[in-house]
Amino acid sequence: MGRLRDSIKFLDSCDFSGDKAIDKQELSRVLREKKCENVDLVVEYIFKLCDKNGDNKLIASEIQKNVSRLKQYTSNEDIAKKCAILLAKADSNGDQKLNEKELEKYLSENGEDFPSLEAFVILDEFDVNKNGFLEMGELRKYVKGKVEQ
Ligand SMILES: [Ca+2]
Ligand SMILES: [Ca+2]
Fold it and tell me: Among the CATH numbers 1.10.101.10, 3.40.47.10, 1.10.238.10, 1.10.10.10, which is that of 3-76?
């Protein structure tokens, strides 16, 4: 399965205007069709990560570089969508991982009474490889745990 083929497929599925690029409206439309919540936030986050030249369009090379991420963030799967929303809200430095500070900030913005304690507890439980970050696989487990509560 080639990256190039994947990215052409992804471009085809989003590029409604046929200009061989994906703009924010097109990405929003795709996310809405997938019933994603917080669409605007997720779109901004995806562009922050992927639109390296800042022209508000994702061109072929940008799509190719980020295709696995783009597919994940626009997936039909609920957990993937929830992870995308969580990252869009909490990943302030755009490294697609959450460190303790980012978690703490997110938790306090969401009304958690003891955000720093809670962030510590979450990392202790879900940061399985103990690198100090929740990255995608770990994030999925965290989000999944929350959904099943
Ligand atoms: Ca981060
Ligand atoms: Ca980790």
Answer: 1.10.238.10
- The string of pLDDT tens digits covering residues 101-127 is 999 999 999 999 999 999 999 999 999
Q: Architecture of 79-147 per CATH?
A: Orthogonal Bundle (1.10)
103 Cα to the center of ligand 2, angstroms = 13
CA of 119 from ligand 2 middle (Å) equals 13
Residue 12 CA to ligand 1 center (angstroms) comes to 30
User: What single string gives the DSSP state of each residue in 21-75?
Assistant: SEEHHHHHHHHHHTT-SSHHHHHHHHHHHH-TT-SSEE-HHHHHHTHHHHHHHT-
pTM recorded for the entire structure? 0.91
Distance 13 CA to ligand 2 centre (A): 32
